[in-house]
Amino acid sequence: MAITPALPASPSPYFEIIALPKKGLGAIATTTIPANTLLFSEPPLLWITHSPELEEAEQAEHVNTAFAALSGALQTLFLSLAGGVEAGVEGAWKCNNFMLTSDGRENAVFAAASRINHSCNGGENAYWRWEGGKGRIEFWSGRRVEEGEEITHCYRPDWRMGTRNRRLALLEEYGFVCGCVVCEEQDD
Ligand SMILES: C[S@@+](CC[C@H](N)C(=O)[O-])C[C@H]1O[C@@H](n2cnc3c(N)ncnc32)[C@H](O)[C@@H]1O
What we know:
By secondary structure, the chain is of the alpha+beta class. It has a single domain, classed as Beta-clip-like (Beta Complex), CATH 2.170.270. About 25% of the residues lie in helices and about 25% in strands. The chain is built from 5 helices and 10 strands, in the order ββββαααββββββαα. The strands form 3 sheets. Strands 1-2-10-7 form a 4-stranded mixed beta sheet, with no helix packed on it. It has a 3-stranded antiparallel beta sheet with strand order 3-9-8, with no helix packed on it. Strands 4-6-5 form a 3-stranded antiparallel beta sheet. A hairpin with a 3-residue loop joins strand 1 (about 15-20) and strand 2 (about 25-30). The N and C termini lie far apart (about 45 Å). About 25% of the residues are buried. Bound molecules: S-adenosylmethionine (SAM). S-adenosylmethionine binds next to strand 2, helix 3 and strand 7.
């Protein structure tokens, strides 16, 4: 008998997490959300502080050490994130880590924030910020979001290039073919 994995519970009264065509899981608004609404906030699941010059292999060591310190339930949760099923700790880290500070010294993975898909510049309707004093990431709506719309944020807001090059860059850096509203509508 095929076992359907349980969908993660929504951390927010504003959206549900469901399976989406070609994107895995994603967050869909269950109500109209006004601009500048706090959608959710959460502490990191796995967080590392490191020198920004750290080589990838050394960073992986930090990640593995932090992973080993998690409880069994949190390890299972971490490995259930995108990339984790196929490529273990390294895959989940690569697919889901946020650079928290502009000096590149702090990176973390979050259970709920990991489920928010990417939209290229202009298509996103949410943004995040790291509240270091509270030790939490916050997700805010950047504009009014209609019921049924997908909640997205832009993984690389600094990329300003044509759709074709942006899609290639996303494929190279993040390993997916972008199916966001901007890429689907533009064809340059
Ligand atoms: C941080 S996770 C986002 C949540 C993920 N969809 C899940 O099922 O947990 C990033 C992964 O989601 C998918 N993804 C995110 N944004 C996407 C987009 N715009 N188009 C296609 N796939 C996307 C890719 O597989 C990517 O590696």
